[in-house]
Design brief:
Blueprint: E1 2-8, H1 12-23, E2 28-31, H2 36-41, E3 47-48, H3 50-58, H4 63-68, E4 70-72, E5 74-78, E6 83-87, H5 88-92, E7 96-98, H6 101-110, E8 118-120, E9 124-129, E10 137-142, E11 145-156, E12 174-189, E13 199-201, E14 208-212, E15 218-224, H7 235-246, E16 261-273, E17 276-277, E18 280-282, E19 288-289, H8 297-318, H9 322-349, H10 357-372, H11 374-384
Helix pairs in contact: 1-6, 1-8, 8-9, 10-11
The chain binds 8-demethyl-8-dimethylamino-flavin-adenine-dinucleotide (RFL) and P-hydroxybenzoic acid.
Length: 389
């Protein structure tokens, strides 16, 4: 088989890229390791920046998102004494949309056939070849036989554990990484949220987050040590801990219910530079990871794909390869600012194993500064809704 762009991975980055290229009449094929149902079963992001929702609107795939997504004017930070509200709408004129990654992925998957976007699911042993040459190709096994796709470019949208990043030449690339000494234990439940906006809490016992997917579905997280096991956290213990960490103002409003899903995710900051080597470009989690505290992961995948689709369009439609050469620089400029913001919120809101009394006072001073300074709230708000493209 032959195509213009072979896209590895059918998560949000790969699917969005595929649709944006198809909208320009560019041929592409997505190669995904899992089944479609498996991809849709992963519970992940929920908060979309205008950059992401604008891309769905541009594709004409935003009808369900507009009907079912919730627009959020702000969010809150609880510091043990008060709720500090970050009024996104008043400070920036922009809002976040609460719409699950699962739903966004489903909308993109379901529209694929009518837009001529081919997706090959359950592809095993995906291998990238000759990425530094002008004639790269991908091999894999699907439907019981070995297959080969020749492409002008390969887009590595296969997440943090994919094959694209390890296919980049080690001598000309560099990873940057920070591991945090804790994870987030998340619970999804069909109960009304405790508040109409998200609450991020800094508590003596550790961070907690009250979030939601809809008026009837809640998503909560608590910070836990990395060696904690899910079996240590029966639902009732988790609800008790959430009530303590979210504090007496919020606790009475928490409705408890059985977990639809419960999992522990480690926290990490990671950037891989550059994001292009020859004819292979990385986008989304394949190139970078942020701790979820700033709700930036999926949104960064969307902005990468915005830059990458416009570069590939300039190449195929105007024979212009400058934007391809500049892709990594443009994408990384936005990535690093989102990394900085996600790191800052993570440091501000979590308890670290060897936090000193001094560190704790610094956190409290920063929280008080945010509560009392509109300039501080503005800096948080403009990063939270997403910096301009
Ligand atoms: P994905 O979603 O991991 O998709 C990659 C796809 O590639 C496939 N794949 C392969 N395919 C072929 N061959 C191979 N060898 C392959 N290896 C892997 C995989 O099966 C998969 O289908 O990466 P992508 O598309 O870059 O999307 C990134 C986002 O999924 C991620 O950044 C977000 O989920 C992060 N995130 C959040 N982001 C936000 O913007 N807002 C949030 O509120 C938010 N909350 C979160 C989050 C991530 C979390 N976890 C569990 C990591 C909350 C959590 C708890
Ligand atoms: C979520 O609802 O899953 C969520 C919301 C905000 C975050 C991270 C996760 O910062």
């Amino acid at each position: 088989m032959k195509t213009q762009v072979a896209i590895i991975g059918a998560g949000p980055a790969g699917l969005l890229l595929g649709h944006l290229l198809r909208a320009e009449g560019i041929h592409c094929i997505l190669i995904e390791r899992q089944s479609g149902e498996y991809v849709l079963s992963r519970i992940r992001a929920g908060f979309l920046e205008p950059v992401t929702t604008d891309l769905m609107a541009r594709l004409g795939l935003d009808a369900r998102m507009k009907a079912q997504g919730q627009l959020h004017d702000g969010f809150n930070i609880a510091d043990g004494e008060r709720l500090i509200r970050i009024d996104l709408a008043a400070l920036t004129g922009r809002r976040m949309t609460v719409y699950g990654q699962t739903e966004l992925t489903r909308d993109l998957m379901e529209a694929a056939p009518e837009r001529g976007l081919e997706i090959i699911y359950e592809a095993a042993d995906v291998t990238l070849h000759d990425v530094a040459s002008d004639a790269p190709f991908v091999t894999f096994t699907a439907e019981g036989r070995e297959q080969r796709i020749d492409a002008a470019f390969i887009a590595g949208c296969d997440g943090f554990h994919g094959v694209a990043r390890p296919s980049m030449p080690a001598s000309r690339t560099q990873p940057f990484e920070k591991i945090y000494p804790f994870g987030w234990l998340g619970i999804l439940a069909d109960v009304p949220p405790c508040n109409h906006e998200a609450i991020y809490a800094n508590h003596e016992r550790g961070f907690a987050l009250a979030s939601m997917r809809s008026a009837t579905r809640s998503r909560y997280y608590i910070q836990v040590p990395l060696d904690e096991a899910l079996e240590d956290w029966p639902d009732e213990r988790l609800w008790d801990e959430l009530a303590i960490r979210l504090g007496p103002q919020v606790a009475p409003h928490i409705t408890r219910g059985p977990a639809l899903e419960k999992s522990i995710a480690p926290l990490r900051s990671f950037v891989f530079e550059p994001m292009r080597a020859g004819r292979l470009m990385l986008a989304g989690d394949a190139a970078h990871i942020v701790p979820p505290t700033g709700a930036k992961g999926l949104n960064l995948a969307a902005s990468d794909v915005f830059y990458l689709s416009s570069a590939l369009t300039a190449y195929f439609k105007a024979n212009d390869s400058d934007a391809i050469a500049d892709y990594s620089r443009r994408a990384l400029a936005r990535v690093w600012k989102a990394e900085r913001f996600s790191w800052q919120l993570t440091m501000l809101l979590h308890r670290f194993p060897n936090t000193s009394a001094f560190d704790r006072r610094i956190q409290m001073a920063e929280l008080d500064y945010i509560a009392t300074s509109e300039t501080m709230r503005m800096a948080i708000a403009e990063n939270y809704v997403g910096l301009p493209l």
